[in-house]
Write a structure and sequence with these properties.
By secondary structure, this protein is an alpha/beta fold. The chain folds into two domains: 49 residues, no CATH class; 185 residues, Survival protein SurE-like phosphatase/nucleotidase (Stationary-phase Survival Protein Sure Homolog, Chain: A). The protein is 31% helix and 22% strand. The protein contains eight helices and ten strands. The strands form three sheets. It has a five-stranded mixed sheet. A hairpin with a 2-residue loop joins strand 2 and strand 3. The protein is globular, with a radius of gyration of 23 Å.
Amino acid sequence: MVAPASDQSAVGRKLSNDVTVSEHEIGYAVEGTPADCVIAGLEVLTPEVDMVVAGCNKGANIGAYVLGRSGTVSAAVESAFFDVPAIAVSMYIPGDGDLPWHEQASSPSAFAEATRATRFLIDTAFDAGVFEQAEYLNLNAPSVSATDGAAPIEITRPSMFHDMGAEPSGDSRVTIHDRVWERMRAGDIPDPQGTDRRAVVNGSISVSPLTAPHSTEHHESLDALAAAYPPSNLNSNSNSNSNPNPN
């Protein structure tokens, strides 16, 4: 276990120049980010590994717009760039009822579904050839007690729905909030079948097979712009500016 020494929620792939590492009863505590943990772990602390498992995060990491800001998912992405397969594991907490969501799922038994599904994928994914196509898996499991039956696994794609909001809050401040969670608590789930958010809300374990490098496509319109650069008026302006006072 190589883990941040303190909470690092929503730090994305933030990187430190150097980190302090302390021995812990279950591994190492790193004064840094999840990405720091992966790099320090793979390069120095525990270099002989077959797979990186990031999490389990208390709270879901679902939706395409969340993936880049999630420290848990970013740890899996960092591992993929080291050519080490990874699983990012998070647990969905509905957040309904009188108890705030961060005070729910406080016992280890609440993580049973996430643990069971992760263990299954660790044992089977290599031989099944999963990582010949995917570089990492983003797993989101529902919160259940250890006595509940196993939820089904649903292979999903990240939801493209986005509903971030911002509003002035006085004193030169702006409040930023994610309206998606508000809608979910109200029972308004905008995502279609096959998406990660829809799966976990319906009680399934969402597994999205993903790749780390940013994709690119051939754009004929950009080819045309590149061929037309620099424009003739830019050349004439450059020539005139190079010798503003010939006398």
